[in-house]
C-alpha cells in the first residue's frame, strides 16, 4: 500500500480496492491478447465485502477470475490479500464480484461477445 492508497490513519481507502482489481483485470485481458476489452466492456455491477484493514507499506496481492461468461455479460470474482506485515499473517482484506457487458462500438448497445474474444478466453 502506498500513501495515496490510504487514509490519514494509514489504513487502506475503499477506493484502492477498485484500482487494484482493475489492474489485475487488465493483466488478465492483456495476457489473452484482448487489448480492446476495456473500451467495450463497462461495469454494470460491482460489489465488495471488506474484511480486514491493509496498512501503509504493506504488500497486497489481487486475484481476479472469470466465473461466468454469458452471451453479452461476464462475471468476475476477486480477492484482495494483505501479505504478512508487522507480525500479522497473510489475511484476506476484501472480496467481491463485478459484471461487465459487451457494448458494440457502432451502436453503443449491448451485443454478444466477439467469437475471437470467447476463443481467447477459452470458451468454445
From TrEMBL:
Keywords, comma-separated and alphabetical: Hydrolase
GO MF annotation: an example: hydrolase activity
InterPro entries reported in the protein's UniProt record: HotDog_dom_sf
Keyword Cell cycle in record: no
UniProt-listed SUPFAM superfamilies: Thioesterase/thiol ester dehydrase-isomerase
EC number(s) per entry: 3.1.2.-
A Pfam family: 4HBT_2
Protein name according to UniProt: Acyl-CoA thioester hydrolase
Originating organism: Streptosporangium brasiliense
